[in-house]
Amino acid sequence: MGGLVGFLILGALFGIFVAIQKLNSNIITQIDQNERIIELLKEKCN
Question: What letter would DSSP give residue 29?
Answer without folding.
Answer: H
